[in-house]
Amino acid sequence: MPRFEPKNPDYRAVATDTFARQRAMQTLGISIARMEPGEVDLAMPYAPEFCQQNGFVHAGIITAGLDNACGIAAFTLMPEGSDILTVEFKTNLLAPARGERFVFRGVVVKPGRTLTVCDGRAYAIQDGVETLVATMSGTLMALARRESRVVAAQGQSRHAEEPRSGVSKHARPG
């Protein structure tokens, strides 16, 4: 695996901040376990709320973890002032996602000025044994960071206390 040099010497703090602003990752209980230039491991504990009808963690949850692992891995190599957006991915589901916890590993295959290609692997861990449950190939795009997007993303957190029924607490009766 080639070692990459980050373009931003403060990549760790910037990538950690970007990850922290992703409320979906907080909701899923996903955290950064390891980060190096072009590589990241994310960790998630098992939660029955994220299972499908057979008791396995839902493929959408696994895919979200993989997408984020690839995204943060790519982001570690982007220049200062960048933002990131996934433009494409393909996921292969290889085994039922059952375990005590899960690890999502993202690795940059080919960094580019605009597009970066990454590989991701999701592992279920049970009794200390890792089982590969899914793989991902993803393409991510560097964007120029606009402060208005950052402020808007932070402002969305005020909606976190609204009911999950889809009805806003601010809605008026019709």
Descriptive account of the structure:
This protein is of the alpha+beta class and 174 residues long. It is built from 4 helices and 6 strands, in the order ααββαββββα. The chain has helices spanning 11-20, 23-28, 59-75, 147-155, and strands at residues 31-36, 39-45, 82-93, 101-110, 115-126, 129-144. Strands 1-2-4-5-6-3 form a 6-stranded antiparallel beta sheet. Strand 1 (31-36) and strand 2 form a beta hairpin. It is elongated, with a radius of gyration of 17 Å. Mean pLDDT is 88; it is low at 157-174.
Keywords:
single chain; 174 residues; 6 strands; alpha+beta
Topology diagram in text:
Elements: H1 11-20, H2 23-28, E1 31-36, E2 39-45, H3 59-75, E3 82-93, E4 101-110, E5 115-126, E6 129-144, H4 147-155
Antiparallel strand pairs: 1-2, 2-4, 3-6, 4-5, 5-6
Number of strand segments: 6
**Percent in helix:** 10-25%
The shape is: elongated
Strand order of the largest sheet: 1-2-4-5-6-3
Q: Treating each run of at least 4 consecutive H or I residues as one helix, how many helices?
A: 4
Give a concise summary:
This protein has about 170 residues and is α+β, with helices and mostly antiparallel strands. It has four helices and six strands; from the N terminus they run ααββαββββα.
